[in-house]
Amino acid sequence: MMKIYLSADIEGITGTTHWNETDAGNAEWEAARQQMTAEVAAACQGALEAGATEIWVKDSHDTARNLIAAELPQAARLIRGWSGHPFLTLQELDNTFAAVALIGYHSPVGSGGSPLAHSFTGKVTMLKLNGRLVSEFLMDALTSAYVGVPLVFLSGDQGICEAALAFNPSIQTVAVKQGVGASTINLHPALALERIRQGMAQAVAQAAAFRQPALPSTPIMMRFTPARSR
Ligand SMILES: [Zn+2]
What we know:
Largest sheet: 7 strands, mixed
Bound molecules: zinc ion
């Protein structure tokens, strides 16, 4: 029995470039949620190849009702909506899981890594923890370290992949896109799936050798600048 916890967002999948594509009320969202689902399914496939038996998949974008359940392998349990647990995107994580993986993650607010760069709700223009720019990746990495489960894999834009490697070089990353101003340069959707499947298989196979990062020193200082309404 090997359980994996996977959290998926939409802004860091290949292709997404504009907020219209991330918004469930918009026609352009349909293609984005399909690629998001395909990237999650590819990651599940990689995990299964490496011996995983169960993959808990947290839909972590906005309403958390984006992924298409029937297109995931049967070993996946889809978590939709938000329970209110403070772990947010890792809301069920405990030490019975062998590894954590993040799909579709994106550059944080205050960085130039993506036209969709933001942190959490988009209602802050700057968020720092002990002087370090806070991304959704960083919060998940700290939560995973706190619970004692290795965060072994991340796919998303190139900026967040670089941030993940700077935080902990034992994380496997796959960059599926690069942000340039208000534009993106993207991998072909099928190539993105192939790289995610392979990277995930390798990362899960090596989870036991993972080196946990140090938790930040106390006192913890959070600084944020609220956004004007947009
Ligand atoms: Zn999102």
